[in-house]
Fold these 2 entries.
Entry 1:
Amino acid sequence: MIRIFKYFLFAFLFLNLYSEVQSKPVPPGSGEGDVPANILFLIDSSASMSRRISNRDAVFGMTNAIYDSNGDILGGQIRNLAVVKFDADGTRNREFGNAARWTGARTDVCEAGHSSGTGYSSTTRDTRTKSSAKLRLVENMSTNDGTITNEDIVFFTSTARPMRGDIIGMSEDGTDCRFYLNPSNMKVQAMDVATIGGEVYLFAVGRWGRNSAFVSYNLTRGERSSIYNLGRGGNSSSAKYNLRYVWRIAVNSDASIMYAARNHLFGFALQKVGNVYELTGGGNALCVRCYTANSGGDLDTELTTVNSVDVSPDDDNTVYVTSSGRHAVQKLSLDGTMRGYTIVARAGTGIRELAMNTEDEGELAANKVRFNTPVGIHVTSDRILVASRAGTVDVFNENLFTAADKDTAWLQQMGGGAVTRWNGVKQAMSAIVSDTTLTSGANFGYGHWNAGETGGHKKRGRGGRFCHFNNGCKYYNGWTGTHPDGHSTLCNRDSCLNVGISAEGHTRILDHLLPQRLAWGTDANAYSQMALDYFKNDFDAYDPTSDCQINYVIVIGDGMMTNNVPAAARIAELRDMPNSVRTLFVAYGGGINPVGMTRFNQMSVAGSCPGGDADHDDCEPTIVANTPADLKTQLTSKIRQILAEKLSFTAPSITATVQEGGSLYQAQFAYEQFGEWKGTILRKTLNPDGTVDHDPDAAGNWDAAEEIKKQASAAGAADSRNIWTAMPDAPYFGNWDNFNTNNTDTIERLFGILGYNIQDYHHVGSDCDVRGTDGIVTGISDDLTGLINFTNGTDYFDYDGDCNITESRKHVLGDIYHSQLVEIGPPDASIDFRSANEEAYFRATNNYQNFMHKHKNRRKVIYAGSNAGMLHAINAADGSEEWAFVPPFIAGIMPSIINPELDGEVKVGTEADGTNLMGGGTNAIFGVDGSPVVHDVYIKGFDRDGNVEVSKNWHTILFIPYGRGGAGFSVLDVTHPIIEGGQGPIHMFSIFNDAINNKVLIADHEGEITEHTYSSGSANISDSLEGKQADSNLNDAKELDGDDCDETDPSTCTNQDNIAVCQTDADVTGGKFHLTGTASCYTGKTFTFEGLLPAAGADGVTVPKSSLIITERIEGTLQSIDFVSAKYVNSQLVVTFDTDKVYNPGGSELEESVTNGFNVATSCTSSSGIDAMYDYSQLGETWSAPRIFRIPDPAQRGNGNEDSYVAVMGAGMGNTNLCAGSAVFIVNLDDNEENPGSIEQTLRHKTHLGHNLLFTVQTTHPSHQTSKPDLLKQKSGSLITFACRTAIGPRNRGKDHRIDHARITQNLGTNVRLSTHHGTHQCPSQVGLHKKYPGCHGEKAHRALARCRAIHRPGQNQLLEYPRIAFQGCKENIFLTAEAFVDRTKGNARFRSNISQSNSLVPAIFSKFHRRIYNSACSIFHHTSQKTFLAEPIIGSQGLRNSGPLQIRIERVPYLYSLMTGGATVTTL
């Protein structure tokens, strides 16, 4: 276990002009103290990581789905779950069966057993099965012999041992075996059930040895037909041949035709003989209706390759089919002839879709439905169910599935298949390295490992098989390159330390992890040698004498590691180094057997327990993460704990100050090492003489933290706080207090929306359970309500150590760190105007005066965001909380505060006997960390009932960026800030860019969330359709091989061996491997990508080579590679190379070809595949403070009264994604009914591998677009200047800095002027400008430089010299901003030259005196008198590596948006 002690280190900071200083305390969770933590990830890249993951919220691939008698849905599963149940609303029913699924039993008594002959007899069978195929329900069934009487029976075929090929009839509730049909020598693969003439018949096809077979049953009478051995039937287009491979059949209403689906659609004639049915012609059964498929045909007119079929219960000539190759559903009308049909309707895009269908009922067009390998279909009189291998079931309205109405037929999607372990670890790591709350406090490195020295085939020399089973293989072999650049000398697909630990390491990890290939074996020597040799010999930042530096290795694996004894010795040596390097182990992916877990636990002791003592307090247990969500949650929690361990600095700290009238408001926080930081807002009186009355007891002074503490209460008791969010199932209208345990189910969905899991903090055996606290249970039900109560102010995590987890906490208000304070009172915007273009004129002519009068007595409220995850509305008069708003997407971050390892492990005091009083703790996170912005706007808002107004009215809105809380923002209407008379604040909309899962989330005013998925802009070979087809084939084979096939005995992997040999396009039916390939390996020159859109273009259009960057890792080095061409075919990108490339994810000995791990990337301005109206795909952490103003409405040209209000905001902080943050959004605030949160315009910033900048504009209307920069195109217009300031610092520092207020000077005219700004707001007492200004009087320094420029008019060389004074004096705490204003006279060549010179100035300054340049997002200043908007950046060590001012002109006439870069020069890093 772990013992953690709270402590505070109070230090006095003395100014040293020539030393680096920490100008602010580090933010919560960032962990940036004296020295960043060093963390090396070593990830298992063995072939077993390709296995799919099982978890509670997902199901495996679905084979079929049917309705039961209650209208709920039963689904067949490919593996492990057999049969599961969903309620009609799509929720997994966990009361079904004996374990939320059909389990069967080793000795199960089935009442109606039948093998041969007539009649039934009870039989005892092993009915355990992992997989099932087609399901069919028979209601009110009875057998003539009385064995079954009026029961609802569900029949299904088993596709796994021990009962593979047999048929079970289970009770509808999934608990009992009622029928067991075992047709002798035949193994059933497909079956159907029909009631004809009051009797129930079952039809089945399958295999008799290697031949096709058919059988039928009369279930009512207990009779069976002869089993027809149909032979092999000739070639692959033969009907009889295909029957032995068929997995889906369907009979029509009178059982005259049996349809079978396998690529083509075959119809066999049936005839009744006695009481059973036979195939007409017996052993010579022929296809009487043969519908030939065209795999590449038009889905709307031609039958595509099919794999499942069902017949309409209302029309024998209406047949439905699915295509797993084309990912579509087709409805056929048969004309009664052998081959005639018409396609009535189809659904599906025609390509494999990884995204889920999340649209509202009836809102998803048929050709937009996203299928991922549909394999089962069931049709009733009014519904269609489509099951897919992705684990989903889509529901359609059968009555609307017509040519005219098909676009409204889709109703819902349920389920969701489990991803592979490897894809899951990539998702989790993407989240980790994209989280600046983690990366700003730690330096990361990365390597992968499996087994083998050669990087080639596992059986060659000292390859994977040799090294897995034998000790002695050598890995790492030193470092190649100048650290942290370069990689380990031994670097291949078997092992490589790809990324050295550094401040920029997190930005490089995904470049190596995402395209990484898997290989066979798990040799523990690999990771242990890499870790030990690296820290001992090549990681020069390792400090063996440091008391502050923390070093960790995190090993992530999924199973049976070998050679553990020598590996344990190495990591023990790491552990015992002078400055201990601790190794943590993560058992990932679920299903790890007991032997494997034992090995993990042994290695955890060796890696973390001092002296190898397993009982030592400092031991780190094995981290168990069964799912990607668990992995993300556990790693985030652990890293935050690591960072918190090394923090120690003074508190409290003042983070925000605002002066209003006679009041001074200050936000402060106090640091807590293992808990939520303590925040407050203080109100102090400003005396007439300018002095401040600091006495907390003085009249009018208050402490918001104390006032809110009075409002909070114990769990379950009434309090006076109003905490609310926007949730459709728990409306906030009318009470504004819905974030409580009355709405647990709805809040739980918000908690899970970003993929964080609630962890089991209090459970049986936990600290407070042992100490006798009531109400603790194992599982997360108590932790779910506990987290909600904690948000409301209770001490659920036992901060004080008394195990009273329902009492109110001693401090309730979370820290207010980056969020500035805003006071809003009565409306007071100016209505004095000098020009009709001014907003004051707009107000005056739209009755703003009446709005002012109506709200003249509006109570003053202070708004501030806290890292408790809320926006707080504080009464300015007394400091009480009027309400607190939890943005819906910030709720999704809240589960990450839970850290079970802190339960009972934090010292919180001392007992009377002198022993330590131990309590609990939580991780510190960022919540609402951005600064709210207020503006009065004239829009169609919402009335008190949440309805959109008929006409425009004035409203006071609050725009709330999340800052470090995430890539999103919320907009509130605070016209009525006080909850009274049925009125209060209104949530207009919230936006969040979930870049990890490539989707934009939008919550409307009621909290209804819609998802808009997009392409990430890059893909590797495994993302190609060819790669996905090979992966799908391989996983299917693995599922068929089951547990019989493992790493110790690959001879049992027969299904994998059968498909191991590579196929080319020429080898498969239709000539396209990605549609009909059957192998697990593809080789060819052509690769096809969906959703990768480098440029707009129609089918057949060639994509310019400059739009794509293709790289491949060759001998450990990432290299650019050439390609012949790229073009669009069927809306897919087809890339052709001049030589064959291989994708071989399998490990069979029968195929030795090695995968070419290439990656395809597009530019940042390429289409992301998302509706431009909601394309927030480049939204980063929203550090930017937006500016709100009007823009012209193109539909009302020349009518200023119809201008629209928008918010202009920089895209925020990018991190690991090159494109994130490289845009400016113009957000529409006046389309709240139809398109809440829609984008008016996106100004995108395109970079190309760090070279020169190019700016383009994308708008939502074609007439608004211009394709290239246009310098000084119009004489009239408004100028927006984005002067993106630069943070500087020496290599390997990676510090974050923030300047809260910019003071940018301007000088319009023909001269280009340089404007400088020094970091005065954050370091008034700590930083100086040379020796002349030892107190860092920034304004004096600013004026000094301004005078110098005005008097001497220096050239560029002089301008480079003067800022040098600032750099010498203030080091990293000085930031300069340059802006170039240009005369609106076009054609002035001299002037363009000046622009070029000034734009290169700032990069030149920084590159001359410092080794790193970082550019980040901009805030925007609005100067109404000149119609100029200036940009203030938020400084950071992440983001785009470029510099220089960006200038964007918004033209009123003719509403064209032109960008002016003036030939900006960028320093390439």
Entry 2:
Amino acid sequence: MSAPEIAAPAPPPPKQFAIAKQRVGLDVDFATRTIKGFTEITVLPLDPTLRTLRFNCRQCNISRVTINGRAPGQWGYNDPHAKWRLHDTATVNQWGMLRRRIDPLFTSTLGDDELSLSLPNKMKIELEDPSMAGTMVPSREVRASSARDSPRIDTPGPNATDGPVYATLLVRIDYTIPTIRDGLHFVGSDDDPRYPHAFTTNSFLPGSAACLFPCIDDLWERPPVWDLEITCPRTLGDIGVDIEPYEEPLINGSSRSLFKRKRPKREDSDFAFQYHGEGEDLEMQVVCSGSCVNEFTDAKDPHKKVFHFTIEKPTAPHQIAFAIGPFEKAVLTENRAAEEDEALGRNAVEVVGYCLPGRKEEVENTCLFMQRAIDYMVRNAGHYPYPSFSLAFVDDFPSDIVSSAGLAIIPKAWEDLWLIIGLAHFLAGQFLKNLTGSNEHRFRMKKDAEEICRQDIGRAPLSNPLQQLPLDPSELDFVALKAPVVLFILDRRLTKASSSMGVSRVISKLFLNAFTGDVNSLNLSTAQFIKQCEKVGHQKLDSFFNQWVFRSGYPRFEISQRFNKKKMIVEMIIRQTQDKEVAQKGLTPQSFLRDALNRQTDGVKDASPPQVFSGPMTIRIHEADGTPYEHVVQIHEVYSKLEIPYNTKYKRLKRTRRQKERLAAFAGMDINAETQAEDVLLYCLGDVLQSDEDTADWRLTDFTKEEEDKMAQEAFEWIRVDADFEWVCTMRLNQPDHMYLSQLQQDRDVAAQYESVLHFKEAKPSHLISTILVRTVMDRRYYYGIRCEAAKALSRCATAELSWIGEFHLQKAFQEFYCFPDSLIPRANDFSDFTSYFVQQNIITGFGGIRDGMGKSPLSVQRYLLDIIRYNDNSNNSFSDSFHLANLLRSLGSCLQAGSGQRGMMDMDVDETDTEEREKSKEEIIREIERLQRMDQWMSSYHNVISTTCLDVKNRLIKAKVQEYTPLEFLAYSKEGTSEQLRIKAINCLVENGAVRDPNLLTYICYIIASDPSSRIRRETFESLMHGIGSVAIGDDVGATSEAAVSNSLTIVEENSAAKRQQEARQSADAAIRNLKEQLANKAFFKNALEPILKSTVINFLDVRKIISLCSLLYNDIQSHVVKVPMRKSRAIAVTHEGKGKLRFITNPSSKELAKLRPIDWPHLRPQPNPPPPPPPQPPSATPQPAVPKLVLKPPILPGSAKPSPPPQRNPSFSPPQPHPTPMSAVSSNTPQPKTILKLKAPSQPQQSPAAPKPIIKLKFTAKSGSS
């Protein structure tokens, strides 16, 4: 199968210059939140015809530019941030204007025309002899860092040159940043009592570094040398030391406040801050990429300190990050063993953590593994590119940390980005395997593969040249989920085929080549990676990458097996059903906007899964003697019929004998008889609780004698399909329960055990399945993840038909592990055994999942969970019980939520006593939630996890109609000053409970998005708002749910009922958009609420693009808006249309100025020809003809005045000028009247060709007195 045919993008133009070195100086002022900086860029010309230098630069006010000390010939600065705003009178219908202004920011060539400098007059690009002193020779490193498609990057030798060497140019740019929108985030102010600090907000993709200093902010432009000088206040007390105090009068008249508002001496900033809090003598520190070579007090200002850093590795500008604050230093390599230091030698890397005062112990505990992770990287990836690894912990951090795989190796094109992300996560997985063991790693991979099967429906492939840049965070999350799993199954195939190190060997070669300067490994493409893998694995991998990288989707297998005793073979039939069983992908609130936009674009073209997945599959048959036999088969077709030979004589160990052996081992008997030695099982889990006493006490059930006799006739123990984990798929195998039991008890692979637990979880509940699961929970030899999954699966066996056996087994297991002997009272908490802790939490979760026949939680479960909370004792525990209590609260909330929304005819048979008891239990649970919430307000838990959980539980109870909705409680937690976790949760609760439909709450939420000082709060609130809008679109919000509930109670659903609309909206993006327009979008309050987000000056580019995309789905693009221009009372005004949307106003024009203007073609002065006969009716045209451009001036008509007379006839001999565009003018002589306002309206026109005339412009004068 060939890869999808995609047109190759046009190659970029050749680079005319490269950056050999860049020096950056930043003076960060915390008092006014401004930056004063400079940069010196050493430009290495690659083309003698170079005349213009182009750089990226945003939100900067450039004060001075020089090239080799001389002023440039010409220079232009086009700041995209200056365009990134709408007029005050703009509405949501002007979204197209904003899109056209910011579209260049999302292209692959990020703003080539932002800052352009032409060389000074008479300055030429001159040759320079490389042998001369001081010459900067374009080495391999410089050339490799300049451009991915440079024609001279393959020069052999470290310092060889194959072409002329030109003299370098030194470009210096001085600038200031008075208003910082992107690139740097400040924390701490008068209203924020946290320690003041600041940090860069660089994203994984380029575009943010140009907000701090001019550079070539491109992924492939990586200067080999950086010099960074960062100036900041020397101590916290030096912040705002040059600001004179000024106390603002408070509303209540009191002058006492913790922080007094200040104002700067010079009125040059809207923000002014002077620190007067704890720790004024704490020294400020700077944590930055590279090595700190010096720090000293500023000679000009003793209140400032300068930090000097250098980077001598090719580094992209967006990969440079720094943080400034009163940090404490924690050296995380102090505990490294001496033997490890000797083994690493010069490759040993220092790992340092920085944190705000008082949190050093938390950093040391959190980063305990980091030293081992870096050492693993050095040993297995060949080398770490920098001498030290620093971590700075800050508040309000909005994004993830950039991995080193994107520093040493970069993608050759944007469609290769999946490879960089996948390699980083694959290395992280290999380290976790080394740290926690193979079981943990395989279990995580199995869970990730299961999640991929849930999400990979209608998704774009990993390598997608048509993807929109930069990628949405949700798309990056999916790439980070799927890419490492694809590399994992690739590693399995390579390791199995060639007995090599697989992908790990490929990664080692790539890193080694990248560190030695090999350009082909530095700029990595998918094709190069495939070639390396084929070289290591000695096999062709085109089919593999076509299925898993260039396509999307996954296979679904349906497998049947039968033993043919006559032929002594196992007959198997494997069907691929992904082409017939199309996975139903319904819209969700999270995916609504993405799916709606994909409907309009071609971003997911060729993303459909292939009809047939092909490749090798390992089938492992555990035959009657217990020996596993592996058979590797090739899957090439939709229907595959296999005949697998049987290798064992027809001999089988009877289960009765096995049970006797287990009983004998349990009783301590010695099994030495020769007749028994050959039948003893060497590995068998789940053989606990085997005695008669345990069987009676635990109410266990085993196979009957008839079932054991039937099982004794089986030819094999069990079958494993895809035993080596080489596929990401869903699989159905017609294997009986006893074979899955054998697989669970005897297979050492944790993935096989997980598959068995999943089978018992989905099978029909029975006493036998409950027995199997509880024995799995009680056997400590199982991997803890298997025990946790078995505990959660036990809740399905808690039914009235089975006498609530699942609940009984969960309670017995909890009593055995965590309660006093022969008592239901839990012991004091002891979380020293982590595996026991996780099993305990999943048993509690299992209690919360128990339901009766009406979908309600039994009262016995609610009482038992309440007792666990009331008897909770954490006094002697060395670990916090915050998450333990949070899990108990979630389980109690799930119990109350269960069955609360179901009403039917069966409710008439409910016992009144049961209703009273349930009401009493509900009140007790709510009181317990309130008690824990109040306690957390006085003694805060870790990150307020208890209060956050209480809000989440209340939110679910409100949506289930168990509690009444009181928005005031959530509003109190959403105020500025509350912890971030609580604010985010409170805002989410408001949105989920219908805040999108409430004008006041929606305005409040949009205000937070548009103006909140915390970037994390803005981002999370915006995502919550998008989910709320998506809920309204698919009919899943509170208002639509209550309306649909009435419709669902009817037997016959009407065509236009709420339930019908909701069902259609969940399946079709078009229906969801129609529903959103009908329910919300066309209402005035919704439009007014979205306007502040479009006009905000603080939200980031991705959020702006998303809100523009939403407006494009809901509203028509109107390319005009009202512009108000104040005019004086009596003045003659001449208006000239100069083209490109420019109008020039001339007040009191002279005769000469009027003569230069073109006369206006007044319609009422044209000679009126005889009217022609009416034409025959014509069919409507598909494209309407554009109107002829005109300029019409309507002077104001005051009440009681006559209509204005037409202007006098101009000289008919006057001929208009010929150059294009031809200007048009209008003259008006206004009578004395009040001050007027000019309104310009450009009506929306369909997009025309370049030669098409421009839309009509109408000028209207409106007097402030109300007359027009």
